[in-house]
Amino acid sequence: MDPHLIRTFVTVARCASFSTAAEELGYTQSAVSQQIAALEADLGVPLLSRRPVTPTDAGRRLLEHAAPILLRLDAARADIRRASGAPPAHLRAGASPLADSGRLAEALVRVRQSMPRVSVALSVLGREEVVTGVARGELDLGLVDGVTAPSDPLRLSDAGALTTAVVGESPLAVALPAGHPLAGRATLHLDDLADAWWIDAPDAATPLAQLRAVARADGFRSAFGYDGAELSVLLALVAAGAGLALLPESVARDRPDVAAVRLAAPAPVHRTELVHGSLTGPAAACARLLQP
What we know:
Number of strands: 12
Low-confidence stretches: none
Distance between the termini: 44 Å
Radius of gyration: 22 Å
Strand content: 15-25%
Mean pLDDT: 87
């Protein structure tokens, strides 16, 4: 399968339109139609229904394979460019909302001070966006966070030949309203909270799927969904009684109307990891400052 044809197919499926996909890709609509026809001929099955434009069953299966295939190709291209190109005149960093962004900010400022001709930019993104951004070369390095057992690495998406290093760890706490019956506890066991209602905030708190995996238990039902990444909004939802959230203890204690009860031992930890590909120039200097 030609990766160019796969990329065109993914774009048409996402846009649900041949003409919109053609405009986005810079092709004519006829060229896009020919590429889809060539891919369908190669596989011997129709991939898209035409009116309306929707993936067939075979097309949906191909979409499941296409994302990681295209990501690995992009990652390979970016890694080769990083390894063989001239030292960049810019430094682009990304961080997930709960990563140790303060430490990253300090490192970026120090790099900027020592290399005044280097432009520096920082983006706060979802965890997966940071990893894929580094893999594709859109970011030079990133910090991602997650919940894990003290001896285990974070489970990151397979995005090519990336290197990770632990930047820091901190204890976790359950954030709940100050008037909650459990707010006065000294500690809480995570598996005792499997039947509680939680806020589903995958970018601003510990994702519920991670809670289930760490606790090795079902439950952890979503009472309220929050798609944003603003911690102040998440804590306001906790204070209002929308549900519980698992956060780094320091973050959970930021509001007087939110109680933060630390998890009892043995407990998972909140970890921040540095993610990068081949490093040169400003990115290498920043990575050295970030690692303990």
